[in-house]
């Protein structure tokens, strides 16, 4: 048998790619379109909790994207207390395979990839479900993915007011300073949830709660707003879905499976089900279902995170790395 080689992209390689906002958005949107057209296979994520005392778990995401001729498995650790050790709360590896033979194609440091694709999914959801004249963002959470939420939302909407809040004062201040430096516009740091989200056109809830707690009040959501909750544990009230004209998810298969997710209680109680779900974002991107249809709509987009987005962005990284001569070729067999 001839030697088999695969590509390894480490974190330094990913940084040297200097992916543009447009490249990130386009790659993730291509994955959504393929999903909407039925040209993908996605398995609901599964979880491994090694020991509750470690205050963290692993997510395992699996999928196949036919137009890219790639299958992929991503394993991402989600450890809330990692900041105490100077580590990211989420670190990941993406494994890409040839779906026809099962042979490895690449192993990618997917930590930054996860942050980018999560922000892209938030922004693309807003592109289709928020008012196009949205200018005020209220963002809860300062985790690594939060930066890309705000950056890519600003790319699409040219926001005039950005408010941020998170549990730790030092983290929200550092988050705001980074955003101000990179976006070149002021960012308001708020001391509480209400002043952050009340009256905002787009509300993103990316909190890091250790247990479900209804900190985001439904009464604070303005008519015509878009709400994007994706925290691991629910921070919203049960009646949040009652005020929504459209509820959209990234994938219903994993939205109603597994123990985690911002709307877990809504699914478990039957409040959110296949019958009252408007659809998946991929169906909207593919033109099979409408997105926002009027300025007065109040909408919600809940995403758990798609293996398809990981694979699509990973493929874009591989292509650019090859063009730039980055990465290592490692022998598999």
Tell me what you see in this structure.
The protein has 333 residues and is an alpha/beta fold. It contains ten helices and 15 strands. Helix 2 crosses helix 10, helix 3 runs parallel beside helix 4 and helix 3 packs across helix 10. It is globular. The model has no long low-confidence stretch (mean pLDDT 95).
Tag the structure with descriptive keywords:
single chain, 333 residues, alpha/beta, 32% helix
What is shown here, in short?
The chain has 333 residues and is an alpha/beta fold.
Order of neighbouring strands in the sheet with most strands: 9-8-7-10-11-14-12-13
Envelope shape: globular
Identify low-pLDDT runs: none
Q: How many angstroms does the end-to-end distance come to?
A: 9 Å
The class by helix and strand makeup works out as alpha/beta
Number of helices: 10
Order of helices and strands: EHHEEEEEHEHEHEHEEEHHEHEHE
The number of distinct β-strands equals: 15
Radius of gyration from the alpha-carbon trace, in angstroms: 19 Å
Mean pLDDT equals 95
> Strand portion, in percent?
15-25%
Give a quick account of the main beta sheet: strands, pairing sense, barrel closure: 8 strands, parallel
- Percent range for helical residues? 25-40%
Question: How is this fold's topology laid out?
Answer:
Layout: E1 5-9, H1 11-17, H2 21-36, E2 40-48, E3 56-65, E4 70-79, E5 90-97, E6 104-109, H3 111-129, E7 136-140, H4 144-157, E8 161-165, H5 169-183, E9 188-189, H6 193-197, E10 202-205, E11 226-229, E12 246-249, H7 252-255, H8 264-268, E13 279-280, H9 281-285, E14 299-302, H10 307-324, E15 328-331
Parallel strand pairs: 1-6, 7-8, 7-10, 8-9, 10-11, 11-14, 12-13, 12-14
Antiparallel strand pairs: 1-15, 2-3, 3-4, 4-5, 5-6
Helix pairs in contact: 2-3, 2-10, 3-4, 3-10, 4-5
